Amino acid sequence: MSLPKSVAISDHGPREGFQFERAQIPTARKIELINRLSRCGLESIQVASFVNPKAVPGMADADEVVQGIELNPAVRYLPLWLNVAGFHRALRYRDRLDVFGSISLTASEAFSRRNNNRSFSENIAAQRDMARSYDEAGVPIKRGAVLAAFGCNYEGDIPVGRVLDMIRTIVEIAEEHHADLQTLTLADTMAWANPASTRRLVGAVMEQFPRLAISLHLHDTRGLAMANALAGLEMGVRHYDTSVGGLGGCPFAGHKGAAGNLCTEDFAFMCEEMGIETGVDLDALIEAAILAEEIVGHPLPGSLKMGRPLAAVREQKAKTKERAV
Amino acid sequence: MSLPKSVAISDHGPREGFQFERAQIPTARKIELINRLSRCGLESIQVASFVNPKAVPGMADADEVVQGIELNPAVRYLPLWLNVAGFHRALRYRDRLDVFGSISLTASEAFSRRNNNRSFSENIAAQRDMARSYDEAGVPIKRGAVLAAFGCNYEGDIPVGRVLDMIRTIVEIAEEHHADLQTLTLADTMAWANPASTRRLVGAVMEQFPRLAISLHLHDTRGLAMANALAGLEMGVRHYDTSVGGLGGCPFAGHKGAAGNLCTEDFAFMCEEMGIETGVDLDALIEAAILAEEIVGHPLPGSLKMGRPLAAVREQKAKTKERAV
């Protein structure tokens, strides 16, 4: 057990969440939510995905969103892209977004084939192409990511050894480009992680790649995101992707396979209660979660927005004591 | 870290859940759910509360429920009562229910005054009365419980020392009656626990009362029930109260203050994935959770009933491999 003193929270709600919704969310409302999140003390916000609008209609307004948001200099605004074309779209916003290179591999070949129609080796080749594009654009490669790092709905459990192999390849590609890889994201894309496997994988990665900061990207599809995040904290992991309100999921049975991310405000609350600094304003985050719920028009899975944090009760109690004295 | 090899799960859904619902649930449907739960491999089920039907209309049919359920000899069926009158009602079902005495104290005086209009000392006196009633009826005292053991919405954080004092009083009352106290429930009645405080309190109780088996009764009002349960598991706690589907809570904003218990099937899934035996049949539990949702007529918070467990994927994968060989 080595709890970190502080954590850095990256809210992926505007990207994961709005991409997931069936109804088209008006651009102005997306901007409204991001502006709200900008004032919550988050380390970064993933604001849009530069993907094919035919494949992901919910992200067709990525440009308008990026152009429309009010930037807070204390927050890093992150784009996502999946290929060179998307990267070039993101590049136009280097003044607004934190555009850096990322080498992403998927630990499940079955998933990679279904999602991108690529084998492992085709995926590695594609990432080498991406790395070359980053170099050409003078964009530093800072991050690695392994998707489906714990398991896959099409392939089952993913062995730790395979993830370590993937990270070795990522490090190799980064070294080919003299890149200073800083962070490695382990993504539980299909919610196969449990606290024991989180501990095992994180431990193995820390041992083999002690210079990489690990970041966890957890989904709550099977109810274990918070417990997995706790296992991460207990291993000393400092970086977490989350989504406000648990955007990206929905407790309605109608939304089958709802796979909300670890909920930002619930996770921040847990950290703060355990004495781990998050930098966030919990009340502001709850207001943002309520706004997100209003925008998507259905309940979001996060609990704290209904349960309310404890600071107000503690303050009230302290005041009562003062009066009594 | 000393994960237990197995856990005993007590489903409190039929009591906590049906008590919480605004609409009156038909008795036959309550019986249907309990019968379904009886076939899930649970250690025990809390089936009804013998309380004043004027105060808790949802429990007015407690007698009919207890009389109507089909008993599975492998399951313990538990009643709840809050006073001598309720105990005497439960006593009539000693052939059907596991009727044993419990000494319960509330760690928050503010909550105790609001809930039962009793001070600490009045509460202790009332528990001594209860203990005498148990003796008179020849019912063994087996359990102690501290409610609001982590914090209180009216009083704030509860110091560990106070909970230890309460347990000392409980042990004292038990000794006065030559009782063999076996289990001590720490109830996070208002969802103030976090993994660090769970660890602290459980650790202190284990140190001071090494002969008592600790049982955790956790609420998910602020999204931390699963993480707190993990902290309990990591301390070696073997007994958990849960509720199927997360009955007792609701993700609708309309159900203000929804405080569902730790969800049975999500918790059992986490244990099984970590290699901790639960004895439960996950698929049967998920069917029960779906039935519970149908009965209450609104979404229940549990995730696994939508996310589905992983065994089926693993089996499918194993079959594919076999075919390939």
Question: Can you describe this structure?
Answer:
- The structure is a homodimer of 325-residue chains.
- By secondary structure, chain A is α/β, with parallel strands linked by helices.
- Chain A has a single domain, classed as Alpha-Beta Barrel (TIM Barrel), CATH 3.20.20.
- Helix content of chain A is 44%, strand content 15%.
- The first copy, chain A, has 13 helices and ten strands.
- In chain A, the strands form two sheets. An eight-stranded parallel β-sheet of chain A has the order 3-2-1-10-9-8-5-4. A two-stranded antiparallel sheet of chain A has the order 6-7.
- In chain A, β6 (151-152) and β7 (156-157) form a beta hairpin.
- Chain A starts with 7 loop residues before the first strand and ends with a helix.
- In chain A, 52% of the residues are buried.
- At the A-B interface, β7, α8, α9, α10 and α12 of A face β7, α8, α9, α10 and α12 of B.
